[in-house]
From TrEMBL:
Organism the protein comes from: Oceanirhabdus seepicola
Record's protein name: dTDP-4-dehydrorhamnose reductase
Gene3D superfamilies from the UniProt entry: NAD(P)-binding Rossmann-like Domain (3.40.50.720)
Single Gene Ontology BP annotation: S-adenosylmethionine biosynthetic process
GO cellular-component term (any): methionine adenosyltransferase complex
Keywords: NADP, Oxidoreductase
Family under the similarity heading: Belongs to the dTDP-4-dehydrorhamnose reductase family.
Domain (NAD-dependent epimerase/dehydratase) ranges: 4-156
InterPro entries xrefs: dTDP_dehydrorham_reduct (IPR005913), Epimerase_deHydtase (IPR001509), NAD(P)-bd_dom_sf (IPR036291)
Molecular function (Gene Ontology), one example: methionine adenosyltransferase regulator activity
Length: 271
């Protein structure tokens, strides 16, 4: 089996990828605080403050596939990704990088497709843009970039926070003018698996096919969860319609790997 190294395997996306890939690949991972006992001797603590740490891990594992869903200090992450990219180039490994919809957050007046130029004003978005540019500079077409929207799972921090407030009868804060795409951790892992298996290349916007207003999303979700008379405190994100949405015009993924916001809501409510 080919060796896969998942950077940030103890996070929401990393754990979903482990579940999806472990029967077909020899999976290794890195963590910062939470070690996954399931991986035993195949998981390494990654110290972003020590540049030699990632080199040691790469040389020990010798992965043919590297997926990055790292979190942490932006500058140190960028330095780490440069090292990983140089390793990937030298050793003919495939690299996959999880980016974000925030690479477009300077102009939130519309949704964005894969071919649109990046344009960000947030620190987070600017960091992801820098990573994308550095990886493409080093690896050219040999890096695959996933731009991701709001990621939800039944054990995701965002969903757990909503459930905690609902169970306590507290209000939920929603943006009345915010329009979103989303995705579940499980479907994201399936899509990434398909992209790896079929050696697809380029930039992918992995998100729902439709865009939904946040109030509609939260109203439908809380209703499907069985909550009545939920308190929604409406606020605004800037002026006019505010989009934090990536959508795709690629035709690479099969129909069974596509989903809508209604699908996301049904998944969260069914678990």
């Amino acid at each position: 089996m080919e060796k896969i190294l998942i950077l940030g395997i103890s996070g929401l996306v990393g754990k979903a990828l482990l579940r999806e890939l472990e029967n077909e690949y020899d999976v290794y991972g890195t963590y910062h605080r939470r070690k996954l006992e399931k991986l035993s001797d195949k998981i390494y603590k990654l110290d972003l403050n020590d540049p030699s740490c990632i080199k040691h891990i790469l040389n020990n594992v010798k992965p043919k596939i590297i997926i990055s869903c790292l979190r942490g200090d932006f500058e140190k992450q960028l330095d780490t990704h440069k090292v990983v990219a140089e390793y990937s180039k030298k050793n003919d490994s495939k690299m996959y990088f999880c980016s974000t919809a925030n690479v477009f957050d300077k102009d939130p007046s519309k949704a964005y497709y894969e071919g649109n130029p990046t344009n960000s004003e947030s620190d987070y978005g600017k960091y992801k843009v820098s990573c994308e540019e550095e990886l493409k500079r080093i690896l050219a077409d040999d890096v695959v970039i996933f731009r991701l929207p709001m990621i939800l799972g039944t054990d995701s921090p965002r969903f757990n926070s909503w459930m905690d407030r609902l169970n306590k009868g507290l209000e939920l804060e929603v943006y009345s003018n915010l329009y979103l795409t989303s995705i579940t951790d499980v479907m994201l892992a399936k899509q990434i698996h398909y992209i790896i298996k079929n050696d697809l290349r380029g930039i992918f916007h992995l998100a729902t096919d439709d865009i939904m207003n946040q109030i509609d999303f939260m109203s439908k979700l809380t209703s499907k969860l069985g909550y009545k008379n939920v308190k929604l405190r409406r606020i605004k994100a800037g002026e006019g319609k505010y989009y934090l949405a990536v959508v795709s015009n690629r035709a690479d993924l099969p129909e069974e790997l596509k989903l809508s916001n209604e699908d996301v809501i049904s998944y969260l409510a069914s678990e």
